[in-house]
Structures are given as C-alpha cells and as structure tokens.
C-alpha cells in the first residue's frame, strides 16, 4: 500500500531542526484540514454524537 506524501507524518522535532519541522508541520496540518485549530481565536465546535452515525 502506497502512503500519500500529504498524509505522511512530518519528521520528529529533535531540538536542532525546528525551522524545517515547523514548515513541514504547518503543511501537514493544512493538508489534513486542521490548521485552523492552531490559529488564535479558534472555537471548538460542539460535539454531537449523532453526527458520527450520519457519516
């Protein structure tokens, strides 16, 4: 099974690679469409269990 580069996890932050890691993590979270959760003033939408059944 081939892994898409858009969903592959970025490298691990080891203390010496912050600049590269930060860029890769940003792109990774944007590809997963969750980057907005990192931005300021983000409000968590209410969780409704019924939505899980409707998918």
TrEMBL record:
- Pfam families per the record? DUF4219
Q: Where is the DUF4219 domain?
A: 13-39
Q: Tell me the superkingdom of the source.
A: Eukaryota
- In its UniProt entry, what is this protein called? DUF4219 domain-containing protein
